[in-house]
Design goal:
Chain lengths: 451, 561
């Protein structure tokens, strides 16, 4: 089933929000497409394979984003559409069947195959949901076949995970209506973080806890009206909607970044399961105190420094909340690819009043604002990081925040350290850049600045 | 449809970006969805460029498709012109926009921008990166020389160089993201200066649009990277009657030939050749410590230019035995096939990474000269490797001066190629002392990179990423007692390095006796794979089920070294 996650989820919410200033723009973006999610999704679901149906560009994107060639034969690949497929010389569906057959005979260990749609497959209207149904009939039960879109015209960066999870929701077994309440954590987390949360939930006395996506595609959590879900990631609009449609109840909370976020997030679960304050404190006091201690080391390095976010992963608002409230940073601008007001309500509510949030910003204009503001730290994508460093700005690659375990108490200090490191580096580096390397582009080339 | 795991080349518009980025004042407006902006980081991260790539992506979305993507494209052109004020603009479509048929050429022309606007037609579903770079360079040169070309056609023959003036040439082909292009042009410029030849323009790397308009001022052209420059130099030959120097000066022999060709084309006194500082390679290769290089079996894979050059160096200048060569550059497959024929090996013309891996596993060379892809293959197979060609990685942009071309390039190549072999030898010597408590056999050989040991436990946790031996692999590479995984972490800004398991057992029914296994361990690890494979083949052919120490030595006697 193809899931078309909208680029801009509809606004409208019931949660209370202390409204920050939200500005919406149109213009050129510099954000990856949803295919990128394959990089961490295939690590998470260890028996799943992601087959992109797309162009050489799609293959090159994943390869470039994956850090290239680290795996021998990774659990992702691209079926590259060729001229003959477009010209109708070859039937695209027959071709796809052939490629999938070839793939699965090579990889008998695969239990779940995702056909991942791309811009080209969508523009030529290649119906991957139909293909998935057909192939699923052929390979089930050895291998399930599902489909979703990771295309750049439908999804931005982390929305790929949303689309993949949403595609899995209909396969989740139904929970008996009478079964007791259970907790479902939704969104890919590093295994180590999952295990930490599992221990805390056990200490809280919440026994029936499942994580979605599971580590193996065959260990699907059952779901139904007794399910209470906590979103671990801020980009799961469609997945949450489908889970709610199957009876799950979303527990509204900020995202589990930093001490404050993690406590409130766990607190939402505790409240839903009727766990009292004393029990909550008993289960969380030790890690909370540890996290506060770990944070304290970095706070002096971050306090009062200004920070500017370019849109990237959707994690921007919760990160800004963490950095403002727990590290004392000053937020200049929070760029987000799109704003899901409902899921983001608590984090936005905790942001300093009047914080500027820009949605879907035009990248060139945003660079102008950033240059004018000259923040102490810029959080941006890899395409911008070195050019901004060369202008003397301090940067932090945003993509690292998606690939590094940052959630929960034990990671709060690590998260702060990621932002402190650029300052640390700047302080250590006494070596001077030669004049030629710092001169603006225009001076070096004699022409107009071509950046 | 083509099932693709890794690609050697990106799509053709990435080739166009390499041209635009190489130049100082050319901007590219690319009709493309947002995900295609990933291309920027190839330049800003891998090449560590300190400026944004001069590309505007229109980043249209699904909701724009029914409406006016053409208007989005036009306003992107207008805005880009206003903001960046380039001297020339390239316009075109990526794979997705190609399907929309918005006609970027017509749309851009309708804007009447006051600069040359060069439309690119790069068929994404047929062509690849190098072709795209070559085509873009050609279109740009033609467009910027349109006026002079007509003038020249009416002017007739090329005027003779005035007596007493120094000859001048253009260096054509170096691009952004090229393998050592940055240092090659410095080295070749120095070499030409020693010969008394001036460089009129280097392009596209570092050139402006105005520089391209000056190309005909040179007496001749040098095609440094035929993959990029060949089409353009042919047009310059036809249009301006500029002769071309085609020898690519990689290696001592090729550099000597290059010098001779430059002298001939420029009409210089042959004695000027002596002004060039020679390479140390010829003596180093003869020095007695290099005896161990003789007859080393090497496999060579990469772009055609670098493969052809490497094969000549390997055979004539290092004394290696080339056991296989191949390229992913289909445009120059004929040249590679010809050379393979001369070397008595079969050429592998392929973009299929798994096929290349299977070939290397089958041939068990002692050294692989390849791209970053082959480096990873070699690491897994525990074979030494040196990188000779794109596709590139961050480590192919070293801080130090490291050209491939000219005599200094030959020095660099000598050092680079023998490094893995020398380290292999060193590891063996260390291995001889492995009984001593300081040494542990499980330690990672240093030339295979650091940080590997700590990942073994991850490997165990991630069985999903075990290497699956390609189906095409004719023989098992390793049996049940596989070597420890030999993959070191790449410094990746994106993912934590993920280790790879050794090739899985492929069901060989042969058993190694404990003493034979012990004996095998005494063989240097860099030939151990070959010894194991030969012994197993020997045993299989003779129906021997249990390999003993005798079988091991029988096989050794049978196969020789
Ligand atoms: S934006 Fe579209 S065409 Fe580009 S890589 Fe992503 S899915 Fe492929
Ligand atoms: S090492 Fe990995 S991350 Fe670094 S440039 Fe190469 S591919 Fe990219």
């Amino acid at each position: 089933m193809t899931v078309h996650a909208p680029i801009s989820p509809v606004a409208g919410c019931s949660d209370p929000v202390r409204e920050p200033a939200v500005v919406r723009q149109r213009g050129q973006h510099a954000v990856f497409c949803g295919l990128t999610g394959i990089i961490w999704m295939h690590r998470k679901i260890q028996d799943a394979f992601f087959l992109v149906v797309g162009s050489r560009t799609c293959a090159h994107l994943i390869q470039s984003a994956a850090g290239v060639m680290i795996f021998a034969e990774p659990r992702f690949a691209t079926a590259i559409i060729e001229e003959r497929d477009l010209a109708g010389i070859a039937d695209a569906h027959e071709e796809l069947d052939r490629v999938v057959g070839q793939l699965l005979s090579r990889r008998p260990d695969i239990r779940l195959l995702f056909l991942v749609g791309s811009c080209p497959s969508e523009v030529i209207k290649l119906d991957l949901s139909r293909a998935a149904q057909r192939l699923d009939k052929r390979f089930n039960p050895d291998c399930r076949v599902l489909s979703y879109s990771g295309s750049g015209i439908e999804t931005t960066f982390t929305q790929g995970e949303d689309a993949a999870l949403a595609a899995m929701v209909p396969s989740l077994p139904a929970k008996a209506a009478t079964s007791p309440a259970s907790l479902l954590i939704v969104g890919a987390l590093a295994d180590v973080v999952e295990d930490q949360f599992r221990r805390i939930f056990a200490d809280l006395g919440i026994g029936d806890v499942a994580f979605f996506p599971p580590r193996r595609s065959t260990e699907l959590p059952a779901i139904g009206p007794g399910t209470r879900m906590l979103l671990a990631q801020p980009f799961l609009a469609e997945t949450a909607r489908l889970l709610e449609a199957r009876g799950a109840e979303r527990l509204a909370a900020p995202f589990p970044l930093g001490v404050e976020g993690t406590s409130a997030w766990l607190g939402a679960a505790a409240a839903a399961f009727g766990i009292g304050q004393a029990a909550f404190d008993a289960a969380t006091a030790a890690p909370r105190e540890r996290a506060a201690r770990a944070m304290a080391r970095y706070r002096p390095e971050l306090a009062d420094k200004s920070i500017f976010f370019f849109p990237d992963s959707q994690l921007e608002a919760p990160l800004a909340r963490f950095l403002a409230n727990e590290a004392g940073m000053r937020i200049v601008e929070v760029g987000v690819p799109y704003l899901h007001r409902q899921h983001m309500a608590h984090d936005m509510g905790l942001l300093p009043a009047g914080t500027l949030i820009t949605e879907g910003a035009d990248v060139d204009q945003q660079i102008d604002r950033c240059r004018a503001a000259r923040p102490d730290l810029v959080v941006c994508g890899l395409g911008l990081a070195n050019p901004l460093e060369a202008e003397g700005l301090n940067t932090k690659w945003s993509i690292e925040l998606v690939f590094t375990p940052i959630q929960g108490y034990e990671q709060a200090g690590d998260l702060a350290e990621l932002f402190a490191r650029p300052f640390n580096r700047k302080q250590r580096l006494g070596v001077q850049l030669p004049a030629s390397a710092t001169a603006p582009a225009a001076a070096r080339t004699g022409g107009a600045p071509c950046n | 449809m083509q099932l693709t795991v890794w690609t050697y080349e990106g799509p053709p518009h990435v080739g166009a970006i390499r041209i635009a980025t190489a130049m100082t004042d050319v901007h590219y407006v690319l009709h493309a969805p947002q995900g295609d902006t990933y291309a920027d980081l190839l330049f800003t991260m891998i090449e560590r460029r300190d400026r944004r790539t001069p590309v505007t992506y229109t980043t249209f979305q699904a909701r724009d498709l029914g409406g006016d993507t053409a208007e989005i494209f036009q306003s992107a052109c207008r805005d880009a012109h206003q903001r960046f004020q380039p001297a020339a603009m390239l316009v075109g479509a990526s794979c997705t926009a190609e399907l929309l048929q918005d006609n970027p050429a017509g749309l851009a022309a309708a804007l009447n921008l006051p600069i040359p606007v060069v439309p690119l037609e790069l068929p994404s579903y047929q062509k690849k990166e190098n072709w795209g770079a070559s085509e873009t360079f050609y279109r740009l040169v033609r467009a910027l020389l349109a006026g002079r070309a007509t003038a020249h056609a009416t002017a007739g023959a090329r005027s003779e160089r005035a007596p007493g003036t120094r000859p001048s040439c253009n260096l054509l082909g170096p691009t952004a993201l090229g393998f050592r292009h940055r240092d090659d042009i410095t080295e070749v410029t120095r070499l030409l200066a020693a010969l008394g030849v001036d460089v009129n323009v280097v392009a596209p790397l570092g050139a402006s649009a105005a520089d391209l308009a000056r190309l005909p001022d040179a007496d001749f052209n040098i095609s440094l990277y035929p993959e990029i420059a060949d089409v353009t130099v042919r047009w310059l030959e036809r249009t301006f009657r500029q002769p071309t120097v085609r020898t690519v000066p990689i290696g001592v022999g090729a550099t000597t030939d290059f010098i001779a060709e430059v002298i001939r084309v420029a009409g210089l006194d042959p004695a000027v050749a002596e002004r060039v500082i020679p390479s140390r390679l010829p003596w180093y290769s003869r020095s007695v410590d290099s005896t161990y290089l003789t007859g080393k079996r090497v496999f060579i894979f990469g772009d055609a230019t670098h493969v052809l050059a490497a094969a000549r160096i390997a055979t004539e200048e290092m004394g290696f035995t080339v056991v296989g060569i191949g390229t992913y550059t289909r445009e120059f497959a004929r040249e590679v096939r010809e050379l393979a024929g001369k070397l008595g090996v079969e050429a592998l013309i392929s973009e299929d990474y798994l096929e290349v891996e299977a070939r290397i596993a089958e041939l068990q060379p002692e050294l692989v000269l390849g791209t970053q892809m082959e480096r990873h293959i070699a690491k897994r197979l525990r074979i030494g490797c040196a990188v000779i060609s794109a596709p590139v990685h961050v480590q192919d942009f070293p801080a130090r001066y490291a050209p491939q071309m000219g005599f200094e390039g030959a020095n660099v190549i000598f050092d680079t190629w023998i490094h893995p072999l020398m380290m292999g030898l060193e590891e063996h010597l260390i291995g001889m002392f492995r009984g001593d408590f300081e040494f542990s056999d499980s330690a990672t050989p240093s030339h295979l990179g650091a940080g590997h040991g700590s990942h073994q436990n991850h490997a165990a946790e991630q069985p999903g990423d075990a290497v699956v031996v390609p189906a095409a692999l004719p023989e098992p590479v390793a049996t049940t007692t596989a070597e420890p995984p030999a993959v070191a972490a790449e410094p990746s800004p994106f993912v934590q390095p993920v280790p790879v398991m050794p090739p899985a057992a492929t069901g060989a029914s042969i058993i190694w006796a404990a003493e034979a296994e012990q004996e095998l361990r005494k063989i240097p690890f860099f030939v151990r794979g070959k010894a194991r494979r030969n012994t197993e083949r020997f045993a299989t052919e003779r129906g021997v089920g249990l390999i003993t120490v005798d079988t091991l030595y029988d096989a050794k006697a049978h196969f020789g070294r």
